[in-house]
Amino acid sequence: MQDWLLKYSQLSQRQQKPLFFKSIPVKKMKLKELESCLQEVDVFEEPKLLLEQYPTRPHIAACMLYTIHNTFDDIENKLVADLGCGCGVLSVGAAVLGAGLCVGFDIDKDALEIFSSNVEQFELPNIDMIQCDVCLLQSDRFSKRFDTVIMNPPFGTKHNKGMDMQFLRTALDMATGVVYSLHKTSTREHIQKKADDWKVKMEVIAELRYDLPASYKFHKKKSVDIEVDFIRFSMK
Ligand SMILES: C[S@@+](CC[C@H](N)C(=O)[O-])C[C@H]1O[C@@H](n2cnc3c(N)ncnc32)[C@H](O)[C@@H]1O
């Protein structure tokens, strides 16, 4: 058994809960409590624009995770993967809500160093991380290994067109159950077609306004608001 799968099975047997939050039963954690906890997660020190390193804001991250947990029960005691985990706001939230184990995947060593210090700060035993290029993940290694995949993928706007769909294809290969992801609303029709081709059910759970940092000197504003869909994909 892979090391991290072993860790998962040991954790599930012991029903270990995050130490830091063990006094709050996970089902009872309020949205506001989750959001204020996620405000403590450190983010990118020097974001790399080509890797689309902008963190999910605590409010959006909390709303996503709260819904995944309370409406769909797809976090507690589940094996969760977070693709393009960055500094770990989604992973930390999933772990706090009682994931059996949450494994973050990211290409960037600097981001994973911050991820690691966040995990230490929160004293979370149910988090692990893997440095890799998500687009090159060998499909047999992680295929159908996770109950739930969560992600805020690169949108493919930085000379990396199609990156969002590569992340989605990988996520669907890795999950046995469901994938939760953020995508630009302007790509909804295209994603729906792909979901139909892949025989996956797609449900837009929420439409969000998302502020992306402006990336070029000629951009006048510091950030631009774009419309983003929060989508749930499940196997038909
Ligand atoms: C929009 S950020 C999201 C970060 C984090 N999940 C969050 O919600 O705050 C996208 C992340 O994808 C990572 N990334 C970009 N290309 C990648 C690739 N090919 N493989 C793995 N991670 C990648 C970036 O380093 C970055 O951390």
**What strand order characterises the main sheet?**
3-2-1-4-5-7-6
The total of helices stands at 8
- Would you list the SSEs in sequence order as H and E? HHHEHEHEHEHEHEE
Structural class: alpha/beta
Mean pLDDT: 87
Low-confidence stretches: 1-23
What fraction strand? 25-35%
Portion in helices:
25-40%
Description:
The protein has helices at residues 3-14, 31-38, 58-70, 89-96, 109-122, 139-142, 163-174, 188-197; strands at 79-83, 101-106, 127-131, 146-151, 175-184, 200-213, 223-235. The relative contact order is 0.14. Helix 2 packs across helix 3 (58-70) and helix 3 runs parallel beside helix 4 (89-96). Mean pLDDT is 87; it is low at 1-23. With 236 residues, the protein is of the alpha/beta class. It binds S-adenosylmethionine (SAM). S-adenosylmethionine binds at residues 51-56, 84-86, 89-90, 106-108, 111, 133-135, 152, 154.
